[in-house]
Amino acid sequence: MAFDIDMIKAVYEKMPSRIEAARKSVGKPLTLAEKILYSHLWDGNATEAYERGKSYVNFAPDRVAMQDATAQMALLQFMQAGKAKVSVPSTVHCDHLILAKQGAEEDLRNSLTASGEVFNFLESVSNKYGIGFWKPGAGIIHQVVLENYAFPGGMMIGTDSHTVNAGGLGMVAIGVGGADAVDVMAGMPWELKFPKLIGVKLTGKMNGWTAPKDVILKVAGILTVKGGTGCILEYFGEGAKSLSATGKGTICNMGAEIGATTSTFGYDDSMERYLRSTDRADVAEMANQVREHLTGDDEVYANPEQYFDQVIEIDLSTLEPHVNGPFTPDRATPVSKMREEAEKNGWPTKVEWGLIGSCTNSSYEDLSRASSIAKQAVEKGLKTKADFGINPGSEQVRYTAERDGLLKIFEDLDATIFTNACGPCIGQWERSGDNTRVNTIVHSFNRNFSKRADGNPNTHAFVTSPEMVAAIAISGDLGFNPITDTLTNEKGEQVKLDPPVGEELPSKGFAVEDNGYQAPAEDGSNIEVVVRPDSKRLQLLEPFKPWDGKNITGAKLLIKAFGKCTTDHISMAGPWLRFRGHLDNISDNCLIGAVNAFNKETNKVKNQLTGEYGPVPATQRQYKAEGIPTIVVGDHNYGEGSSREHAAMEPRHLGVKAVLVKSFARIHETNLKKQGMLALTFANEADYDKVQEDDTINFLDLDQFSEGKPLNIEFVHADGSKDVIVANHTYNEAQIGWFRAGSALNLIKEQNK
Ligand code: F3S
């Protein structure tokens, strides 16, 4: 992977001078997060100090990772950019579209049949454009990235919220929407609001049953699901150094559950060991050369309160194992309190399943520690009460764990070994039995929202470490505390489980026969990407039409959305996931969750051509067929939620011209701009009330569209009266260029010609 080594070398070469420039600009010692951010500025050396939580800054990430569900639209868009190859090293990982039902072999076979078309598409696009392709069964994106691509001091983006996992190897790794990935792959800057910084000082050393997972379960309890929003968490202290690299990955991974932009750790011996063990001694050597730059300045860690916006301190020596849930990952309960809590809240204590895996906890160390508990069940004559399911994180982990007998231990407990993929973590678990009954499961994943694993709203899912999953599953009792409680074995004796032991890294080294990686063609120019015209799941994108330079006139109101309108209301997930690569099909969910301000109903709007009420997508399709432009009106924080670009692409595809709201969620506003839409806000919020259901809408001065100049829009009401509403916008000249060209991609394409 010479592409990678050269890139890493270039990053490390630039780092010292860039950090020096940043230190001068900021005027004080730097945290690790600042060092990484400032050494990845798009414009090179820092010339100013950015304001945390305020300044929008352009960055140049080192690499991009995409998973199969989100990669589809990202790559369909990238194909529009007119580039022969991606500009930064990029990879695609097939891990989400894989079932978990009977066991690895059969599930993989069935998934290849069910989603073969999507996998083939991703494979051929990757091959053509120089993108590394990880086949179905190769592993979960974040485990594979940690094993192969993450490097200390690097910056990456990925089209998955748990991209943050790579912080375990000292990266600033951030989850983004597909449109952002396209920008970076097309060689454009990537914009981020300069994050605030939370320092987490870890003292002491873990012992007994405590695992790295407990650090983040504790932090989640402290900060809650929103407490990390807009922040980078930087872990430091002696305790941090005592954790393995994959353990650090677990902690960073679940930073997503507290809304953090990302989390990271300074480079240390554990990272060096991990790099060497995963066949990257060359990266370790290079990192050692710039070691001082791959961690925060001493002064920062000596007086953290002066340099971080918030500081949390956790003593690992006294940290208790935690079990978080149900239904939210921040409901933190120390294991010693679980029985009491469960009884108080009426949570079912009989545990039916214990699941070990997901991108959070599927490393060799995780399997080795959990298997040490499973082994005791056999040795001590215990009968396991719950079922076990295991998803190894990668083929390399699976192969090595099999070689070392770890999987055999689970198999002796009748565990089902699922494919090296997300499986139950993303609702691909076809669990048998009544799917509405009240029950409890424990897992080592990161999210435990209602219905997430098995679609059953009455499944109480609890998140804990893999070793605790093993112990609780063996006992079949949510309230079981392995530190104090005993279990009755088959002979009727009382036995106690000893604390887990395991290997941080396999003593015989990692091994794998076929890791599932497919390198792209050197020259992909002759590779044809085939998408069947009658495909239900994939559709090549047509470039959106450029603006004709004229005012939009005679437009109709598609919907005036009332109250909260998130990207989920605009483009629902769930069953619609399967159409993520087919813009026309997924557009049938356009705005179906938005509440119509005139009747307070969802997916029921007045069709001004017929006077009838009908679904939003069908109504809009009729306007489009008649060549009638439309606008959408919305309330506050329109488009909050995920960064999914479908929420902007669908209305654009269906012919909506403008979205006029009281205020936007910023990412959605940018997405609308990128897709060539008009994203406008009421200069006077009260004007929202002037918009009527039967209005005809005329833009009066769009032909003079320019930076900083509000637009005047005339609303002609059914009775002939008129209101002229002033609409503000935040387009700069470059973004007006996107609008003119029809989309940002069209412009990139023009520039690439
Ligand atoms: Fe996959 Fe679940 Fe992680 S869906 S990427 S294992 S959060």
TrEMBL record:
It comes from the Bacteria. Keywords: Iron, Iron-sulfur, Lyase, Metal-binding, Transit peptide, Tricarboxylic acid cycle. Pathway: Carbohydrate metabolism; tricarboxylic acid cycle; isocitrate from oxaloacetate: step 2/2. Transmembrane segments: none annotated. Residues 557-685 form the Aconitase A/isopropylmalate dehydratase small subunit swivel domain. Residues 40-476 form the Aconitase/3-isopropylmalate dehydratase large subunit alpha/beta/alpha domain. InterPro entries: Acnase/IPM_dHydase_lsu_aba_1/3 (IPR015931), Acoase/IPM_deHydtase_lsu_aba (IPR001030), Aconitase/3IPM_dehydase_swvl (IPR015928), Aconitase/IPM_isomerase (IPR050926), Aconitase_4Fe-4S_BS (IPR018136), Aconitase_4Fe-4S_dom (IPR036008), Aconitase_dom2 (IPR015932), Aconitase_mito-like (IPR006248). It catalyses: citrate = D-threo-isocitrate. Belongs to the aconitase/IPM isomerase family. PANTHER family: ACONITATE HYDRATASE B, ACONITATE HYDRATASE, MITOCHONDRIAL. This is Aconitate hydratase A.
